[in-house]
Amino acid sequence: MASALAAKMGFNSLIRKQAKYFKVKICTMESDMEFKCEMKWKGKDLFDLVCRTLGLRETWFFGLQYNIKDTEAWLKMERKVLDQEVSKEEPITFHFLAKFYPENAEEELVQDITQRLFFLQVKKKILEEEIHCPPEASVLLASYAVHAKYGDYDPEVHKPGFLAEEELLPNRVINLYQMTAEMWEERITACYAEHRGRTKDEAEMEYLKIAQDLDMYGVNYFSIRNKKGTDLLLGVDALGLHIYEPENKLTPKCSFPWNEIRNISYSDKEFTIKPLDKKTNVFKFNSSRLRVNKLILQLCIGNHDLFIRRRRVDSLEVQQMKSQAREERARKQVERQRLQREKQLREEAERARDELERRLIQLQDEAHMANEALLRSEQTADLLAEKAQIAEEEAKLLAQKAAEAETEMQRIKVTAMRGQEERRIMEQKMLEAEMLALKMAEESERRAKEAEQLKQDLQEARNSERRAKNKLLEITSKAIYTSPGLPSDSVPQELNFSRENLSFDFKDTDMKRLSMEIEKEKVEYMEKSKHLQEQLNELKTEIESLKLKERETPLDIIHNQNTEQGTSKQSNFKKLTLQSTKSRVAFFEEL
């Protein structure tokens, strides 16, 4: 089987020698690309091709990474691609990644594409827990990641459940709390809503500014042993070399800034570092493999070069890039403010339209109510007129009966004289007739008064009807003057005019206002840092009661202890570097 494999490799090698090109696959954080490369190409030729394709000019941060027997390696620029220990199978796969990290992302990263690639790579490392991130910072970083993807928060668009498919938090953080996915989304959305007004690029930069303060950000760890054979970890980053205990990757035991290191070299598995102070002894350590020593040396040289470069005047190329970036940011700021003003004007116009529509509906309701009142008045007037007519007829009937009663009384008086008995009877009947006549008269009078009252009620109902008609006429007149029945271009004309004035004023004052904002940045930095810390503390307080203490990892416990002691990445580095180089070397050897 071994002979067959050797024959196959020899056959592949023969084919590759005869071919003029070989294929490579480049995996970036956003996409994959394939290229045909000439056989004679060096690592720099392939790297430059990838950078040109991406439009990347800040090339010094990046490299092409590949794997050798479970070990990471970086393509060397000065050697031919095929002469290095790359895969023999085509397409040869490389990962285009950040090899070196900036000390201050906001000051050093100029191009948008550079910022984007760093953002995606750091986000991936945090989610895969290669960089330890405390829970409260994870929530805040997740909110900026959401903003970088979706832009400004809009409650009409970003409704509950819109983050259900997003991977935003490390599994370690999710398992550490008794919180459902909905509860996490609620916390992240609450922070996301506070970022309103930022662009996606600004959200990415805010993410990096928070992430660069994490203890494991930008650190490459390697297992080493000192002279005593103690197992330790070597950390290489933008500031220098750091020595850690294997179980604690957060807090180094001692650190050596790049400006204190004179020379770095290795022989086989032994690594030698010479301090700048010649009176201080060199310190040595052993790594597991020669290949690891090569990788350590590459990272040390690259980080040291960038450390020195940052402290010198920028090259003409970098100055040009920063100038172009400032101009582009200023242009984007002007454009963003213009769009913001147009959006504000549009919202004001929409509010005015909504107010007119609301007023129109109100007037229509009032007109409807007035119509109903008028209809009721007309019905009441008709009813009262009918009652008045009935009362008049009843009064006439009563008057007729009263006249008949009077006639009957006269007849009784004439006949009463026929006899005493008849007279007495007739007197009694006459008395009854008089009583009846009196009652009839009173009833007639009462009916007459009722008829008069009904006439008055009828008159009042007609007056109410007339007032209702006047009210309806008044409402209709108002609607004519305030309804959107005016020419359709009346509001937009005013809006266009306002836009023209705003645009004119803006052109005159933009650059002055922008320069004032730049002057304020240094003053605002401290306030922003304070606000960020307050925001993190508030998030921590909100979710602390739901934490499951038994699920804390060793790094979580160490981070909590550092926080209680007020120890941060920067303060610890300053504290360690205050010690003399000699004492730090001695401390390292005694570990």
TrEMBL record:
InterPro entries: Band_41_domain (IPR019749), ERM (IPR011174), ERM_C_dom (IPR011259), ERM_FERM_C (IPR041789), ERM_helical (IPR046810), Ez/rad/moesin-like (IPR000798), FERM/acyl-CoA-bd_prot_sf (IPR014352), FERM_2 (IPR035963). Gene3D superfamilies: 1.20.5.450, 1.20.80.10, 6.10.360.10, Phosphatidylinositol 3-kinase Catalytic Subunit, Chain A, domain 1 (3.10.20.90), Pleckstrin-homology domain (PH domain)/Phosphotyrosine-binding domain (PTB) (2.30.29.30). The lineage of its organism: Eukaryota, Metazoa, Chordata, Craniata, Vertebrata. It is found in: Cell membrane; Cell projection. One of its GO terms (cellular component) is plasma membrane. SUPFAM superfamilies: Moesin tail domain, PH domain-like, Second domain of FERM, Ubiquitin-like. The gene is NF2. It comes from Poecilia formosa. GO terms for molecular function: actin binding. It holds the Pfam family FERM_N. It is a peripheral membrane protein. Residues 22-311 form the FERM domain. Keywords: Cell membrane, Cell projection, Coiled coil, Membrane. This is NF2, moesin-ezrin-radixin like (MERLIN) tumor suppressor. Its main location: membrane. Residues 324-348 have a biased composition (Basic and acidic residues). Residues 322-348 are annotated as: Disordered.
